[in-house]
Amino acid sequence: MTVALAPAGTKALPIHVLGSEDVALWAGQQSDRIRTWVDVSGFKGAIGTALMIHDAEGHPEAALIGYGTQAARKRDRFAVAAALPKLAPGTYRIDSGIDPHHLEQEALGWLLACYSFTRYRENSVDHATLVTPGGVDAQRVSILAEAEFLTRDLINTPASDMGPAELEAAARGLAETHKAKITAITGEALLKNNLPMIHTVGRASDRAPRLIDMHWGTSGPKITLVGKGVCFDTGGLNLKPGSSMGLMKKDMGGAANVLGLAHMIMASGLQVRLRVLIPAVENSVSANSFRPQDILTSRKGLTVEINNTDAEGRLVLADALTLASEGEPDLIVSMATLTGAARVAVGPDLAPYFTDDDVAATSLDLAARRMADPVWRLPFHEPYEAMIEPGIADLDNAPSGGFAGSITAALFLRRFVSEQDRYMHFDIYGWQPVAAPGRPKGGALQGARALFAALPDMLDL
């Protein structure tokens, strides 16, 4: 699928983007023919509406797109993209109606609205093409859209075709594209390489667990991305009910998101030394499944009491985070579809994140607004540390009681990096439950675009 804006100067129909308060003024400045057509068509400038304008011979000469009210635009992240289904196929350019500061966001939304998942069913929809607006970096917008399409495709693919081996293959394909180095430690070799919890979680499946390790870049600050790659999560012996298992193909959403972010970094040529670590497993049920009340010893040497085999994501991340910390990077970022508690706290649209670094948090929050990629900071609340200390072992993977589940999971993960590490953890949903402008129902990239835009400030690039 081509993910690109048309070059500036391409012949195209002009688009006038009109807010609800602008329609009457604009129409009053047009010919009687156009003014009458706008009036009889009932076009009021609402978000999601469009109107084709034809010349006296019936040929299209322009289009109007509704931009709604200022209040309505706060509720629709990509307001222009909402009108794409109403436009006739063709090539268009935005002539007026959008603040220059919002042009990149709306151009990106246009591309994102053209996504469709076609692996199992052809989609013959012919989307309208947008000419690169003035002042917009077409290459940058295309890179952002490509990253999102990659993430969506990975998450949308069912576990039957996206197990640990297939996730490794996708990572290898990305590495080949960007000339990155990549290795994988698989199966029993995980034990020989002191990655015991990744092995334990994945050993019940006949699809071998693995640790995927990608390196790119030779100069600049070191950043390590760690993505949860649980390709399907049955819950293990603490089996999920069917209603909770239905979306578990998306439990590798953290891995999909860090691969999308890695594409942004590599395709943009960011001057960093990038490392991507993905513990890829399937949490299955068999005679050798790990059990409730088992005590595991992690790569770091910390012992973990298993009080719920369905809290497996933090176990595989723990070994990967320890490995990340050993490389002494300037920044470690983990991304995971980790807890239902995060969804209860902020819903599916916001990407909650944790960090002790106030400067990094400020950079991220500002970038999130620019990039239309909302995030929300949650605390590493240290008084809750006692909740993850069971007494019989160093740590508890699933504290009882249900309180502060996202925070206790984040505190658990923080135990596996050193106190000197700059660390950020994202507890994402990775799924768009209801279609919205530029965001079809299905797999979603969350927080990665904001983080990409914030990295230059965070790392003094």
Can you walk through the features of this model?
This is Leucyl aminopeptidase. Keywords: Aminopeptidase, Hydrolase, Manganese, Protease. With 461 residues, the protein is α/β, with parallel strands linked by helices. The protein folds into two domains: 119 residues, Leucine Aminopeptidase, subunit E, domain 1; 317 residues, Zn peptidases (Aminopeptidase), CATH 3.40.630. Strands 6, 7, 8, 9, 10, 13, 14, 15 and 17 form a nine-stranded mixed beta sheet that branches. Helix 5 packs antiparallel against helix 10 and helix 8 packs antiparallel against helix 11. It is elongated and about 80 Å long.
- Unreliable sequence segments: none
Distance between the termini: 32 Å
- Counting DSSP H or I runs of 4 or more residues, the number of helices is 15
What is the number of beta strands? 19
Q: Give the full name of the CATH homologous superfamily of the largest domain.
A: Zn peptidases
Reported for the largest beta sheet, the result is: 9 strands, mixed
Outline? elongated
Q: DSSP strand (E) fraction?
A: 15-25%
How many individual domains?
2
Return the CATH architecture of the largest domain.
Answer: 3-Layer(aba) Sandwich
Radius of gyration equals: 24 Å
Mean pLDDT: 96
Helical residue percent band: 25-40%
CATH C-level of the largest domain: Alpha Beta
Secondary structure class reads: alpha/beta
- The third-level CATH topology of the largest domain is Aminopeptidase
InterPro entries: Leucine_aapep/pepB, Macro_dom-like, Peptidase_M17_C, Peptidase_M17_N_1
Domain Cytosol aminopeptidase: 308-315
Keywords: Aminopeptidase, Hydrolase, Manganese, Protease
Protein name: Leucyl aminopeptidase
